[in-house]
């Protein structure tokens, strides 16, 4: 599909975060609604991978409007998969119900190979029904990079367009405490967030666009130190999921800083890196106060709440920084991702 001549090419880096990915749904919906951008490449992990495939599949079917419909159809389908549990209007929709809590407790004592011997996964049916992987493999003009983690080596696996499949997408979102490893060509894979959340390097290595918009769900810092056993476990998991992304961004920021300070462009990689323009939409404010368990809450009210927050944040970002795309970075990656140097 040819890009509209007035559209500005943009690449996307979409983090994972379970149900919090509905925030990214809202961000993408606002970007598509405005109609100023085409999409060169999308790198996604877990829920970010689901959003990436939904956008690309819809875009291929009918441009921006179809992409919005595909995103909405996927997330409404996710809501339909949520356990039907009675909920009082006085109960926060972001809290897991009794049935979900019970399953979480069981997952701490039993593996998915014990709890789910038939390997049932309702998400598989939704993915198969929603996305046309054969068409994506052969016709998509958007370069996709879907991250998964090899369960035996920890190595990052990026599934690109020619390798896209139901299994590849499910592998990117495979939490090993809940789902069995997804085996592809004899190799077992877990959630991509263990190795990249998401991978940013393929967007400037393989895509023509100089602009990368990162939709970040995980906070860069926390206001309080966890004290309970559950809080500590959740924080360590979150830190593990985001460490690879932060390390990559710090390396990119340091390399850009070196080339800018020296003025020396040694080769194509350095020139390319220096020419990149980075942009950022953060979910920190919208997700502030939500417990870690809210990432597994998929009731419709909560997903719509996150979608609306994502739309509002994206609209604010577009008003403040939309004109920067194609011209300049709207963030200084060094200020955002490089820790300050303290000299004693």
Automatic annotation (TrEMBL):
Membrane-spanning residues: none
Active site annotation, chain numbering: 46, 191
InterPro entries on file: Acyl_Trfase/lysoPLipase (IPR016035), NTE (IPR050301), PNPLA_dom (IPR002641)
Keyword Hydrolase: yes
Record motif DGA/G, residues: 191-193
Superkingdom field: Bacteria
Keyword set includes Ribosomal protein: no
Motif position, GXSXG: 44-48
All residue ranges annotated as the PNPLA domain in the record: 12-204
Pfam family membership, one: Patatin
PROSITE patterns the record matches: PNPLA
UniProt keyword list: Hydrolase, Lipid degradation, Lipid metabolism
Motif (GXGXXG): 16-21
Protein's name according to its UniProt entry: Patatin-like phospholipase family protein
Species this protein is from: Uliginosibacterium paludis
């Amino acid at each position: 599909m040819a890009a509209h001549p007035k559209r500005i090419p943009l690449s996307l880096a979409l983090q994972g975060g379970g149900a919090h990915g509905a925030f990214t749904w809202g961000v993408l919906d606002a970007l598509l609604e405005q109609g100023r951008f085409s999409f060169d490449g999308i790198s996604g992990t877990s829920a970010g991978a689901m959003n990436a495939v939904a956008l690309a599949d819809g875009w291929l079917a009918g441009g921006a409007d179809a992409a919005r419909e595909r995103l909405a159809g996927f997330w409404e389908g996710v809501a339909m998969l949520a356990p039907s549990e009675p909920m009082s209007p006085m109960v926060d929709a972001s809290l897991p119900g009794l049935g979900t809590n019970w399953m979480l407790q069981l997952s701490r004592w039993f593996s998915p190979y014990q709890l789910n011997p038939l390997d049932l996964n309702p998400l598989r049916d939704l993915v198969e029904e929603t996305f046309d992987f054969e068409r994506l493999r052969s016709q998509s003009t958007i370069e996709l990079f879907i991250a998964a983690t090899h369960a035996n080596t920890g190595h990052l696996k990026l599934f690109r367009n020619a390798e896209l499949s139901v299994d590849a997408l499910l592998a990117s979102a495979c939490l090993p405490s809940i789902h069995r490893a997804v085996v592809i060509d004899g190799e077992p894979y877990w959630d991509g967030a263990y190795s990249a959340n998401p991978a940013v390097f393929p967007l400037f290595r393989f895509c023509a666009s100089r602009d990368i918009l990162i939709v970040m769900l995980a906070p860069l810092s926390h206001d309080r130190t966890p004290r309970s056993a559950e809080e500590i476990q959740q924080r360590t998991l979150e830190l593990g999921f985001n460490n690879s992304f932060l390390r990559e961004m710090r390396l990119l920021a340091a390399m850009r800083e070196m080339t800018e300070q020296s003025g020396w462009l040694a080769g194509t990689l350095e020139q390319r890196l220096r020419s990149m323009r980075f942009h950022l939409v953060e979910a920190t404010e919208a997700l502030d106060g939500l417990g870690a368990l809210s990432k597994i809450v998929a009731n419709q009210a909560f997903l719509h709440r996150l979608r609306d927050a994502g739309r509002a944040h994206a609209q604010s970002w577009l008003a403040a920084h939309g004109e920067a795309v194609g011209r300049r970075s709207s963030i200084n990656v060094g200020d955002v991702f490089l820790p300050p140097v303290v000299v004693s």
